[in-house]
Please model this.
Amino acid sequence: MAEQAQELTVSDEVAIQINNMNKWYGSFHVLRDIDLTVYRGERIVIAGPSGSGKSTLIRCINALEEHQKGSITVDGTLLSSDLKNIDRIRSEVGMVFQHFNLFPHLTILENCTLAPIWVRKTPKKEAEDIAMHFLTKVKIPDQANKYPGQLSGGQQQRVAIARSLCMRPRIMLFDEPTSALDPEMIKEVLDTMVELAEEGMTMLCVTHEMGFARQVANRVIFMDAGQIVEQNEPEEFFNNPQNERTKLFLSQILGH
Amino acid sequence: MSDTHAQSVAFVRDTMIPEQAPPASEAGIIKWMRENLFSGWFNTILTLVSLYFIYQIVTSAYPWFANGIWTTSSLAECREALDGMTGACFSVLTERWNQLLFGFQYPNDAYWRPTLAFFLLIVALVPVLYPKAPRNMLIFTAIYPFLAFWLIWGGTILIPIVAMLGFVGGYFAFKQFDHQSFAMGLLAGVIAAVVVWWVGGFATGAAPNLLALEAVPSRDMGGFMLNMILGTVCVALSLPIGIVLALGRQSHMPIIKWICVIFIEFIRGVPLITLLFVANVVLAYFLPPGTNFDLILRVIIMITLFASAYIAEVIRGGLAALPRGQYEAADSLGLDYAQSTRLIIMPQALKISIPGIVNVAVGLFKDTVLVSVISMFDLVGMIRGPILASTEWNGVYWELWGFAVFVFFIVCFSISKYSQWLERQLATDHR
Model:
């Protein structure tokens, strides 16, 4: 499987360019001098201990968090405080959250059609067709008329993925998508993500699923204390880590 | 021996046990009584004592109701008819029925107008209150306020029509410019509405008698009708204003935020009754001399402001209860502020706030009787003033106040029951 993932093409086109980005929460320096270039079609897994700033990093990319210094360019659009730019970037960048964050007052189908109808101005019928297409893709078309509360965690997370895909994003951000799930359900979500990766989606994924990283990622980034400590191809990263902190982390996470 | 043992330990279930009904002794009225009324010697004594009190109350109140006199025209006649027996003089209700409902100055031959307005109100409320009612009934709901105004206040039908056209024109102008930005749409809508009203002003001036009903001035409104007018209008207006205030209080724009905070905190710090006195007396000093600013309108403004501050706080509670993830999910999909507020945040925040909003609405409806202290003759004002002060009915306290209690209880209890039903309807989380 690892070889198959390697075969996926990564283009030279830059999807995300982060230069010397810094962020503070009050006086706490969460992200320090982050430099990162993501090429179209890349599948990047971001790992690291909790509090290392990995979630904050990907949340800066679609401006859920504001950065104070440096620049982020997504799809050629510079992220500034201009609301128009932010909304444009957000509609191009899909995000999947740890706690799914489905809208509990809307059905599964409505969850998926809402943004296409209101942001993309897609006609309702067409939006529903798109939604059913992606719900079929994540293998839950038969739940379309239920409410999120009636679904299992794994199903909800797959709906959340489908909801993002309905906006036809060019980049997908995953913020610990499997951390709130039972072991039985992690697999179904990961399968969906693997499938997505195989189609060439640009993905940034914060996760502790090292198996997923080995299988799908073409780059693993290790963060600690708000900095990128190490990044490498998965084989090298797992078999031959360089930084002491990385070694310690890997020994703890893969120790049993 | 060991074989048998192994068989009893190793176990593979091949059929799952289906769900079964509980045994008969665990259901029904007997179980309920045993659990709730006679679960121990102490509770049994309490039950028996309570039954005794209920018996006493019913036996003493029953003849009062049963012997009630419904047809006399004064308290003296009623006493005579009772001839020393215990009995209620309900005839005050029948004799003064119209006064209790409409006040003592509303023209008699026009009673059908507020009555019709009341029944049409029920029709207009159906699509608002029941999500499953046909959606095109909302058109009638939109027309209703203007229709009701015409029915109750009378005058030419041109006034409500022009008022309505102003709103319609404003709406279309808003739709036209809403694509550019919400603020642009709002501005265009307001301008269009003002233009329509200004032009319409000439039309009503030119034909003041077109389809005119007999005009009834505001000071002639009274009775329970006045409570209904104030209650309905103020609840209907304070909800949207409350929503705007609650959102404003959460705004990141400091000026908007502080305006809302100061308004809410000021209103909450002032008793309603002082605001009503302000409406009644003080406001007149600030208005240019000669302007006759309708008293009901002034009272409506004050009660609305008062209730909207409370509703704003209730809704703020609902907003605070929403997980941050909902805002983030809406943001991450590219919805702008207006869209995410309207489609994601408000539907959920309002649902959480229903009990609080209903609490305010019920309180507001009951507070409408406070207008009786600024000499308006609502239901309480009518009872306290013209009816109890009359020579015929001086001293009929129980029947009149009992009636007022009954009427308000019916309305408020219905509102409360409705809100509980609505909460169940909107429960989609199934947790």
Q: What stands out?
A: Confidence is low (pLDDT under 50) at residues 1-6 of chain A. Chain A touches chain B through 29 residues (CB under 8 Å). Chain A is about 40% helix and 25% strand. Strands of chain A lie at 14-25, 28-39, 43-47, 69-74, 77-78, 93-96, 171-175, 202-206, 219-224, 227-232.
